[in-house]
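User: Hi! I have a protein structure encoded as tokens and I'd like to know what sequence might fold into it. I'm fairly new to this, so please keep things simple.
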């Protein structure tokens, strides 16, 4: 397998992706049609399908400017630094980081009355408890995913991939990679702790003890890790280059490799893992808020667009009936056996201030060790 694989982006089949929905006046409401101008979006790679972007620009005259991000913390710091005059209109926030952004007054509540296509989102996501804070909704859920153990099927066996222990084994030393901060939460769960740290609210001493244990564990494992990485494209390239055969990863980038024919698979190991939801949010003080709502409403306009979001990103669409527009291999790349899903918990935000107040310094200490 060569680097050419990563250049063959064939995820968007046919330029008609939701063309009927986009061309329809159903989403061009509230006097915003053909406004021109621009909309500025911070998001992850492939979270805005290229065909959708091109057609939206053609239909509305609005230029879509995308700035790629690869880390929630970096995005938070940048947005905080720009206040009260942000350059961004729409940003991508993971549901479990909501409180950090909301408490810092960086997001505007979502006015769902301006989104006639809000009902196209599966209510499991659109009406979820984590998505409603202080009586307000704060984002449009578009994709969901999980922290998985990914492995090269030509080197690592399926049985080996059913436990997180394999990631830290001597057998695969220097042939692995993981997102350090995310992996710390997963390993808390694997060791029987609450990786969300909600259980330790009011007992910061216990939270600090657990974080110190995690810090020391990852320092001890540091000689075995090939790389701490940040973004999905990076782990894809490491697999393709055969720099690694094992990785902790988000399911989206791995699903993309699967549908592209690369010999990789993924599991939710027996110790369990965490799931998450990505949402598109309006920045407080967004310079082009009207265009931002028009963009969001267009994006939510059909299950075909939801399928293309899933196809381009590799994550699971939150749109109703999106799976009906995916091929068999695409559905396979975005699903897990029931017994593995039973071990999946969702990230929660209630203890984030305490958790990341302890975790962020621990991560820096691990990297410096």
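Assistant: Happy to help. Inverse folding works backwards from shape to sequence: for each of the 369 positions I chose a residue that suits the local structure. Here it is:
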């Amino acid at each position: 397998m060569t680097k050419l694989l990563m250049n063959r982006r064939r995820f968007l089949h046919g330029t008609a992706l939701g063309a009927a929905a986009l061309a329809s006046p159903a989403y061009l409401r509230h006097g915003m049609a053909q406004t021109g101008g621009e909309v500025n979006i911070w998001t992850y790679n492939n979270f805005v399908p290229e065909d959708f972007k091109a057609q939206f620009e053609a239909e509305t005259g609005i230029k879509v400017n995308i700035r790629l991000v690869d880390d929630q913390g970096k995005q938070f710091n940048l947005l905080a630094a720009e206040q009260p005059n942000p350059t961004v209109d729409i940003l991508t926030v993971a549901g479990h980081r909501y409180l950090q952004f909301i408490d810092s007054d960086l997001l505007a509540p979502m006015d769902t009355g301006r989104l006639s296509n809000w009902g196209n989102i599966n209510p499991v996501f659109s009406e979820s408890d984590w998505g409603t804070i202080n009586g307000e909704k704060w984002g449009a859920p578009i994709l969901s995913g999980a922290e998985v153990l990914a492995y090269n099927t030509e080197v690592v066996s399926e049985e080996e991939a059913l436990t997180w222990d394999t990631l830290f084994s001597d057998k695969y030393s220097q042939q692995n990679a993981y997102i350090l901060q995310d992996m710390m939460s997963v390993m808390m769960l694997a060791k029987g702790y609450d990786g969300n740290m909600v259980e330790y609210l009011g007992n910061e001493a216990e939270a600090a003890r657990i974080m110190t244990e995690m810090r020391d564990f990852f320092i001890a494992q540091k000689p075995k890790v090939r790389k701490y990485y940040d973004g999905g494209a990076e782990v894809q390239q490491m697999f393709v280059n055969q720099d690694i055969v094992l990785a902790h990863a988000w399911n989206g980038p791995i699903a993309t490799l699967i549908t592209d024919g690369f010999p990789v698979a993924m599991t939710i190991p027996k110790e369990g893992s965490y799931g998450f939801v990505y949402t598109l949010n309006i920045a407080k003080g967004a310079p082009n808020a009207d265009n931002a709502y028009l963009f969001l409403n267009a994006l939510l306009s059909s299950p075909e667009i939801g399928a293309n979001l899933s196809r381009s990103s590799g994550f699971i669409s939150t749109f109703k009936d999106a799976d009906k527009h995916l091929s068999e291999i695409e559905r396979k790349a975005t699903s897990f056996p029931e017994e593995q899903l039973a071990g999946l918990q969702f990230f929660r935000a209630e203890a984030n201030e305490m958790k990341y107040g302890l975790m962020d310094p621990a991560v820096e200490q691990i990297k410096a060790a």
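A useful reference point when you look it over: Residues 139 and 281 are 4 Å apart (CA to CA). Feel free to ask if any position seems puzzling.
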